[in-house]
Amino acid sequence: HTYTMQKTFVNRESNHIKITNPIAKTHKLEIFKVLNDYDDTNDYGGDITIDKIFNVAVTADGKNLPVGAKYEVYDQEGNLIDSKEVKELVVPNGETSITYSVVEIKHNQKVVIKGFLESMKFTVKEIFENVSVGYTVSYSFSTSDNFSGTIAENQSTIEGEFVSEDMNTATASVTISNNKNGISTSVPVTK
Asked: Model confidence over 102-111: pLDDT tens digits?
C-alpha cells in the first residue's frame, strides 16, 4: 500500500501534531494469454507448445517495472498457481540491445500486477524472442469508467491509463492472443 502523510498542527502552543494516513487506492493490471487455433496435438508449430513461456514487457509511467517486483499467476479457473518476480530480459537489436522488464505467462493463464496508482499510464507488449514460426499477435482490453486504453495501430503494444476519479480500485484487463499462421479472430473493442 502507498501511504500519504499529512501533518496538521492541533495546538501550536504545545506543538502537538495530528497525523492522518489516508490509504491511497491502488489499481491492478490483469494480463490474459490465449493461443487461438490451437489443436489437441500439443503442437502449435515451430517451437511453440502449450507449455511455452511467453515474455510480456510492462511499463509504468514510461519506465520498466522494477526487477524483483511481485506478481501473481492464475490458471483459467482463477486459482492462484504461482507468485513470481519481474525479471529483466535483454533482447539484441542490431548492434545494440533493448532491456525490458517482463512477466512470464503461458497459454490460458492470467498474470495480476498490483500497485498502479491513480493516473498511472502503462504499456503491455509481448516480446518475440527465438520464435521460428509465423504467427500474429493481437491485443484486446476491457473498458470501464476507471480505465482507458488504446491499441497501437500496428497491433504491437497496448497503452492504458487508470482514470478513476472517485478513487475506487480499478482493474484493467488486457488479453494477448496469438493466432496461428496468420489466422485471426476479430475482437470488438469499445470505449
From this structure: 999 998 999 9
**Lowest-pLDDT choice from 73-77, 78-82, 119-123:** 119-123
Q: How far apart are CA 118 and CA 176, in angstroms?
A: 24
Cα torsion angle, 141, 143, 144, 149, sign: positive
Write down the pTM of the prediction.
Answer: 0.73
Q: Please, are residues 177 and 138 in contact by the beta-carbon 8 Å criterion? A: yes
3-state secondary structure the chain: CEECCEEEEEECCCCEEEEECCEECCEEEEEEEEEECCCCCCCCECCECCCCCEEEEEEECCEECCCCCEEEEECCCCCEEEEEECEEEEEEECCEEEEEEEEEECCCCEEEEEEECCCCEEEEEEECCCCCCCEEEEEEECCECCEEEEECCCCCCEEEEECCCCCCCCEEEEEEEEEECCCCCCCCCCC
Selection from 157, 90, 87, 99 nearest residue 126 by Cα: 157
Longest dimension (CA), the chain: 79
